[in-house]
Amino acid sequence: MPTPTLLRSVRVTKTHKLSAAVLAAAGATAALTVPAATADAHAAAAPAAVKKVSANGQPAGAKAEAAESKAGDAKETTTLADSVKITAVAAQGHTAKEAASRAADRKPVEPAKPKYANNLDGWIKESLAIMKEKGIPGSYEGLHRNIMRESSGNPRVVNDWDINAKNGIPSKGLLQVIQPTFERYHVEGTANDLFDPVANITAAANYAAHRYGSMDNVNSAY
Fold it and tell me: pLDDT in tens for each of the 222 residues of the chain?
């Protein structure tokens, strides 16, 4: 039975709507598929960077890089050590040079000589210091005792009445020493003057040491 024209028109319209819906859905799927496919194509076209792996599972060349790094550190340490050593040697040489220069510029300083009073006490003490240096025995008491007996402490006294005076060689000074005895037993470093108190005492003490063992052993004219 022939379908009325109006009914056929409605059916066609529904079919067309379905077709349009199908086409729209297909278009959306295609739209989603194309970018995905494009991304996959790009991913396939760009090969991934793959690191080589050694037998122990570490990236290939890791040992070489580590060895190279270690060698670099060792070289740097050696260079630093050499630099420090060179600096130390240079500093030492500079210090030694300065020390030598200072030693050359400076003259040895002699110790200050003690000062003695210009009296009988000072003369005896100075004489004892010289006697000790020269190895001549004697004590303060022995020197003082004999000086007081011979001259009463007067360094300018001269004996003009004994046998020596009669022979033209009078005894002089603190310990009444004659000139020949003074010249023979004169102590180096003292004045070459029979009236000098220290020279007179040390010469007399030197003579007494040779003849009596020490001035301490003299208790009368000697």
Answer: 444 443 344 444 444 443 444 334 444 444 434 344 344 444 444 444 445 545 555 555 555 555 555 655 555 555 666 666 666 656 666 666 666 666 655 667 777 889 999 999 999 999 999 999 999 999 999 999 999 999 999 999 999 999 999 999 999 999 999 999 999 999 999 999 999 999 999 999 999 999 999 999 999 988
Distance CA 202, CA 205 (A): 5
Please report the DSSP string for 16-51 in residue order.
HHHHHHHHHHHHHHHHHHHHHHHHHHHHHHS-----
Closest to 182 in 3D by CA, of 170, 174, 194: 194
pTM: 0.53
